[in-house]
Amino acid sequence: MSRRMKKYTKLTAPEKVDRSFEAAEDLREEALRADTIVEGISVRNLTKIYPKQKKAAVESLDIGVAPAEIVVLLGPNGAGKTTTMKMLTGDEIPTAGLIKLGRPEDFKLAQSGRLDFGSLYRRQVCGYCPQVDALFPELTVEEHLKLASTLKGLRLNSSASFHQQHMDSIVAGLGVGQHFKTRSAKLSGGNRRKLSLALSMLGCPRVMFLDEVTTGMDPAARRSVWAVLRGEGSRPAILMSTHYMDEASALSTRVGIMINGEMRVIGNVNELTNRFSRAISIEASLAEGFSASFLADSLSRALGITGVVVVEDFNSSVTLRVPLCEDWTPTQQIAELFRIMEGGLKTTCGVVYYNTFPMSLEQIFIDLVREQRA
């Protein structure tokens, strides 16, 4: 067995870390998920400590991703997302932890020494789209695809072959077919990212790692990537990182927020919204002669709270931020706001129309990062 693969399959759990926060239920559930999933990505107590650094770059990380799930990692720069990806893909050796990738037989082969890390990619167990494009400047898009297919042992000898059809569907979905004869050095940044993603998807890997895959793409290109990932018929387990909150909301089975090398929270978007929303936003259009401040004061009195603020007031369109009442969920407060508005306050305050919604994932993320850095 190679030294590197041995480290991945024989590492023991790290010594108990003295955490400054109590492990929440969502983190315990994720650790249990990592222990119990049969196939996909199982990460337990993953830790990376660099020499001469007092703080771990990644500390006691637990993640479990089953087939057809997409877990998205969010975090500010330096949170540990890329270090995590590098450990999972063999670019970095963990200080401690246990990683299982693919199916049970893949892990057994690794433990027995018959499968090294590179083989995980040649055998289509794993696919990886790194943050920095690993492309040959002088090779065309077509040549990249043929080279990667050859290295993976894929049969592309006829248009009827499964892997040829799969490659064709990826190329069409990502829109890189029109650049087939273009050298990668001449591609735009967004198209280089698309090519890197296409290369990682060849051979229908059971596990995929995508590090900032849509960086440099325009909104339309990003949505084409989302469509390809959602429609991937091989149903891989996907762990990806991103800085785009709309991407996390659109794609994720669960979202994990990392801060200072630790997973702080993890759950689906609705769970995170209900757990961490501290306010409700109201967008409204007011009739002539009515003011946003009057609406804010009226809502404060009706709810019996303080702190209702006008976030935006332009012409007749206003946005208000309404703090959550104590012990209420966002859903409960939205229902109460609707009852109050339709009970007469809408007419009293000259509201032509209105819409209510909980804090966005981006607002929750900003609040959590601000709290942890305070």
From TrEMBL:
Residues 41-285 form the ABC transporter domain. GO terms for cellular component: membrane. InterPro entries: AAA+_ATPase (IPR003593), ABC_transporter-like_ATP-bd (IPR003439), ABC_transporter-like_CS (IPR017871), ABCA (IPR026082), P-loop_NTPase (IPR027417). One of its GO terms (molecular function) is ATP hydrolysis activity. It comes from the Eukaryota. Keywords: ATP-binding, Nucleotide-binding. This is Nod factor export ATP-binding protein I, putative. PANTHER family: ABC TRANSPORTER DOMAIN-CONTAINING PROTEIN-RELATED, ATP-BINDING CASSETTE TRANSPORTER SUBFAMILY A ABCA. It comes from Perkinsus marinus (strain ATCC 50983 / TXsc). The keyword ATP-binding applies.
